[in-house]
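QA checklist item 7 of 12: single-chain prediction sanity check.
[x] sequence parsed
[x] length recorded as 390
[x] structure emitted
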Amino acid sequence: MPIPPPLHAVLDGLSAAALMAAPWPARIRTPMRALGAGVAAYSLATAYVADQRRPIPMRRHLALDAVQGAGVLLAAAAMRDLDRRARLAMAAYGIVSLAAAALTDSRPAPSTRQIALPSKALVGRPRQGGPRAVAPDVACKRLGIVNVVFLGTPGRWVLVDAGLRGTAGLIVAAAERRFGPGARPQAILLTHGHFDHVGALRRLAERWDVPIYAHPHEFPYLTGWNRYPPARPEQGGGLMAAISPLYPTRPADVSDRLRALPPDGRVPGAPGWIWLHTPGHSPGHVSFWDEARRILISGDAVITTRQESATAVALQTAELHGPPAYFTPDWEDAAATIRRLADLGPQVIVPGHGRPVRAAWLARRLGQLAGLQARIGRSVATPVVAGRAG
């Protein structure tokens, strides 16, 4: 499998840092550090992703990698009086550079940049340590790269999703700030079972002694039976995409507390809301919808930041966006889901990633997003299947 350009960008950064920081012998310290600075310079000028307006295309970048790798390898062979460890380090670097140049896909990664959102569309302000209020009975809390949602009022509320591993204490504290000391939900609802939505699930369910509800199509990933498809770092063109093979895909196992969402669309513990099957990002992905107020809790079916980009995630750059590309196996279903959500006419979206948004034009923008998602999907997607957990 070829190395995707975004992953090559990460390797370039590591290479430049290693060349400049390594304890080279005095004789070669200055030229090796200069080489590291050069690698950094031409890497910053490289268009790793199709929509990056930079002067060096991937093909030329790979040629530069090959030239400097070969040069270092030849220098290591010629400098026989140099310290043996330094010569081995130079040779290893040269071989890795040549291999990376040979194995990297020379085409820039397709972009998944989608629809920018104005700051005036962002809603909700976080309270000290508490969740961000969106409506009297809807609030969300950001936990690193993902959101959880508190739905309801004191004495009658549910938690939507369960964040990253290690965040159970933060979720409990936020719940108690919103609903009072000792607050306990009636249930935990899952949009889907990816690692960043179920990390604290078992700990919270046991602490609160509550059931967990999900779509039956998601059960294989919540009973320990099946793992999600592997990440696809070539999709997305950002650091979060490039390192996505490191993200867990093994299933959770909460089978002792797992329940199916009611087939009539009701949402346990949340009267007035219905659940919607919104597949694409995962087979059993669901979203939650309040038609009277046109509020959509979208999970990862629609998000409001470019989750493939570490910069966008860190800054929470506002962008109406389809599901994280590196973990979306069915782009056709994902586009169809966005189109169905557009037809509902939502005016508020509370996403799994990014800030909540409110605007009268959201449905129109979602229609545009569906078209973008379909076009991007046709350019990058191939069928992906899950694997049996082992």
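[x] summary fact logged: Residues 381-387 have pLDDT under 50 and may be disordered.
[ ] second reviewer sign-off
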